[in-house]
Amino acid sequence: MLHPVICIDGPAASGKSTVARLVAQDLGYIYVDTGAMYRAFTFLTLEAGHDPTSRPRMKQLLEKVDFQAEIQKKEITLREANRDLAPHTRLPEVNAAVSIVSALPELREYLVNLQRKLRLSGPLVMEGRDIGTVVCSDSPFKYFIDACPTVRAERRRQQGEKDNLATRDRLDSSRASAPLLRAADATLLDSGKNDARALADRIVSEVRARQKPGPTVP
């Protein structure tokens, strides 16, 4: 059985992760950060000494890697050969290369298939860059969260991360495979003008309203 998915897309530092977590908590859904999956493979690519632009190297990595994505306590956990990958996903070198690695078609196909299988686990709040356009394009619940570059840059600074957002936006939006796009039927939300709690409340309210059963026919 495929469970419902709330799709939350947006560029780096748009605030989508914070909103997605709040929505998942409020609804009791599973929270899935697909960006962490791409970061995990970026780390594995760099750790192996592979060229992050090499499709053959990525194919080799995918053929031999023991990658596990499991649901624990309503969140996705990522492991490689039982090693927790979470501590490695926010490293500066991973941050710098993730948009390059995530553009490789072989990796995107591998992870999209994995992400779709997660719909068998229960209702999801899935956030990323291609959830509403590719991964779960059939979902009726699609949101695209964005903010102006100044707001996003300040968030990164407060997080203590160095990130060239303009470069990441260009790479994410121009890649041949599943570029960052707002789905035609996605609701645009500005996280620079509204805080995360307000945006989460709006999404939760809309989802609950649309999931209400219709009137009983006599």
TrEMBL record:
It is an enzyme of class 2 (transferase). It catalyses: dCMP + ATP = dCDP + ADP; CMP + ATP = CDP + ADP. Residues 6-208 form the Cytidylate kinase domain. Gene3D superfamilies: P-loop containing nucleotide triphosphate hydrolases (3.40.50.300). SUPFAM superfamilies: P-loop containing nucleoside triphosphate hydrolases. GO terms for biological process: pyrimidine nucleotide metabolic process. GO terms for cellular component: cytoplasm. Belongs to the cytidylate kinase family. Type 1 subfamily. This is Cytidylate kinase. The gene is cmk.
